[in-house]
């Protein structure tokens, strides 16, 4: 890749008369500045500090361990194998295990009031975990500081002088400060200030595709005796076609409830939207009609609906994640996705581990490390973005569809019949660390096989298993371990 962020003559890391090779002759363990101390930024800070890097972090919000957790998005997090791996690498598995609640599968609440559990895996060895965003973030901040990272809170990135590698920060009182940062990594989320500064210098090929659906957060509190008001070990879902409610358990006995709806209603099809469900009274009427079993469990429904903001959903794509060896974007700052596969944090944690490993081995060639990071991670980020969008349709609609349930039953049968060759996509995404791109590509092939085998069928005993064996043998190679 040609050129520097400040032009061919230099990038602020050395005199402008030096050549490009000299410009990137940095110490073996250069100081790394991170923007953002959220989940991905805090984990990256911990991993890099543990590897001997001097790490300085700037975070625009106050320290949540002192002032309490102040959200951005606060949808509960689904912790899966990729996320657990990052926590294990950082030495945090036991601590986070105390905060997490096991979810065996989707507990589907049908319109007529009956429920059924659709397991995620074969048994309790294949589950996901619900964890509070705030509690997890605070544990990661502790780990980063214990590893030696320095974190400055209440500091908003206000500009970057790429020629001198100088960052400018402002606080809520209007005071400013500067910080020289030869290497800066942006983990400051979908609204990344560092991405804005990078894009002002060099086009990143940025595009944001809104989902045209939003969300509103509510709560089912713990019972008076501290117990859970519903089955605790499940992700509860009320699928209603073009909209849905979900509820994830919290360790103290409550559930975080999230209502997802289109921003604009289609009343001719009976579908509400946030333009028609405008206030708590409207929400109460909607729940009475479509989520009747949940309504008695949400005593503050109207108050919370009026008080909590309507969140925005969408997918962020960038063609370029870095400015040579000077600046890099990771996590949501590079590839924000919709939350419907529960993989945003897990994907971001993979970023942090991959980056720490690459920088550990990079020596003084940070540009090559950043190029390699994007080369490895972007295809996987694009794949999980696509799968997350598909999963929204599945969650809000397909889980209540008879043909979908037949396909899932056949998927389980074929997985047992052809282990290592027919592997459910959900398993690849959630319970393994196979590249997301592999899961996506094989999942497309397997979905086509399932559709072919179940066409015009209503039960498993009508499926031609000999044909299934032939299609699997022809179209799917054994999955590498």
Topology:
Blueprint: H1 20-23, E1 32-35, H2 39-50, E2 55-58, H3 64-67, E3 77-79, H4 81-89, H5 93-97, E4 101-103, E5 105-109, E6 115-119, E7 128-131, H6 133-146, E8 150-152, E9 156-161, E10 166-170, E11 176-180, E12 184-186, H7 193-201, E13 207-220, E14 235-239, E15 244-249, E16 255-262, H8 280-290, H9 301-307, E17 311-317, E18 322-323, E19 327-329, H10 332-335, H11 344-362, H12 366-396, H13 402-417, H14 425-430, H15 436-454, H16 465-475
Parallel strand pairs: 1-2, 1-12, 2-8, 5-14, 12-19
Antiparallel strand pairs: 3-7, 4-7, 5-6, 9-10, 10-11, 13-16, 13-17, 14-15, 15-16, 18-19
Helix pairs in contact: 2-6, 2-11, 4-11, 8-9, 11-12, 12-15, 15-16
What labels would you give this structure?
alpha/beta; FAD/NAD(P)-binding domain; seven-stranded mixed beta sheet; 19 strands; 20% strand; disordered N terminus
Structure in words:
The protein is of the alpha/beta class. Among the domains are: 20-74 and 85-98 and 133-208 and 314-388, 3-Layer(bba) Sandwich (FAD/NAD(P)-binding domain), CATH 3.50.50; 401-475, no CATH class. Helices cover 38% and strands 20% of the residues. The protein has a 7-stranded mixed sheet with strand order 6-5-14-15-16-13-17. A 6-stranded mixed sheet has the order 8-2-1-12-19-18, sandwiched between helices. α4 packs parallel to α11 and α12 (366-396) packs parallel to α15 (436-454). The chain starts with 19 loop residues before the first helix and ends in a 6-residue tail after the last helix. Mean pLDDT is 91; it is low at 1-10 and 12-27.
């Amino acid at each position: 890749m040609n050129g520097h962020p400040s032009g061919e003559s230099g990038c602020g890391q050395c005199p402008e008369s030096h050549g490009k090779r000299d410009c990137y002759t940095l110490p073996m363990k250069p100081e790394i500045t991170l923007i953002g101390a959220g989940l991905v930024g805090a984990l990256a800070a911990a991993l890099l500090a543990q590897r001997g890097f001097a790490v300085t972090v700037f975070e625009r919000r106050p320290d949540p361990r002192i002032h309490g957790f102040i959200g951005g998005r606060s949808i509960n997090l689904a912790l899966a194998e990729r996320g657990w791996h990052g926590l294990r690498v950082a030495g945090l598995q036991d601590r986070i295990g105390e905060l997490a609640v096991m979810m065996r599968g989707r507990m589907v609440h049908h319109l007529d009031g009956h429920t059924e559990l659709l397991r995620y895996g074969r048994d309790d060895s294949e589950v996901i975990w619900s964890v509070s965003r705030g509690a997890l973030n605070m544990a990661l901040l502790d780990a980063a500081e214990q590893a030696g990272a320095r974190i400055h809170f209440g500091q908003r990135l206000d500009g970057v002088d790429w020629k001198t590698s100088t960052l400018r920060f402002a606080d809520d009182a209007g005071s400013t400060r500067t910080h020289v940062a030869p290497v800066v990594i942006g983990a400051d989320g979908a609204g990344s200030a560092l991405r804005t500064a990078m894009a002002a210098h060099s086009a990143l090929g940025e595009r944001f595709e809104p989902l045209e659906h939003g969300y509103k957060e509510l709560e089912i509190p713990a019972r008076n005796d501290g117990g859970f008001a519903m089955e605790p070990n499940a992700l509860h879902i009320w699928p209603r076609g073009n909209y849905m409610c979900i509820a994830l358990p919290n360790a103290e006995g409550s559930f975080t409830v999230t209502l997802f709806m289109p921003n604009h209603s289609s009343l001719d099809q009976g579908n509400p939207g946030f333009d028609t469900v405008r206030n708590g009274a409207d929400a109460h009427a909607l729940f009475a009609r479509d989520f009747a079993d949940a309504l008695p469990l949400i005593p503050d429904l109207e108050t919370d609906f009026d008080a909590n903001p309507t969140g925005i959903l969408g997918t962020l794509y960038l063609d370029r994640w870095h400015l040579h060896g000077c600046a890099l974007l990771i996590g949501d700052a590079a590839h924000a996705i919709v939350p419907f596969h529960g993989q945003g944090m897990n994907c971001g944690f993979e970023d942090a581990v991959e980056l720490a490993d690459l920088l550990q081995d990079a020596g003084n060639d940070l540009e090559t490390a950043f190029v390699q990071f994007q080369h490895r991670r972007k295809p996987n980020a694009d794949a999980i973005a696509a799968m997350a969008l598909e999963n929204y349709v599945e969650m809000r609609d397909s889980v209540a569809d008879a043909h979908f349930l037949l396909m899932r039953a056949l998927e389980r049968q074929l997985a047992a019949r052809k282990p290592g060759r027919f592997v459910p996509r959900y398993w690849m995404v959630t319970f393994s660390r196979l590249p997301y791109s592999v899961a996506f590509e094989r999942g497309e092939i397997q979905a086509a096989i399932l559709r072919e085998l179940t066409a015009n069928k209503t039960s498993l005993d009508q499926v031609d298993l000999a044909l299934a064996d032939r299609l699997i043998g022809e179209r799917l190679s054994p999955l590498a371990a």
